[in-house]
Amino acid sequence: MSLEERAKAAGKNIEGKAQEAWGNVTGDPEHQAEGQAKQAESNVRNTKEDVKDRVKDALD
Question: b/e for 14-49, b at 16 or more Cβ within 10 A?
Fold first, then answer.
């Protein structure tokens, strides 16, 4: 498990939530979509790390 990658994913998730919230407040669908995309990227990064952990555990 890469703590650095998980930290980056957490940061991207927070950034995405803030951007989506800003888009909701201002009524800007572009910011909403970009924020949702950043959150999705965060989920992908976390899933990738989960898979890496499972493979490592299976090989040990």
Answer: ebbeebbeebeeeeeeebbebbeebbebbeebbeeb
State the pTM of this model: 0.86
Structure tokens of 43? 């989920």
Cβ neighbours, 10 Å, residue 9: 20
| Closest-CA residue to 35 (of 7, 51, 15) | 15
Give 12-58 pLDDT, tens digit per residue.
999 999 999 999 999 999 999 999 999 999 999 999 999 999 999 99
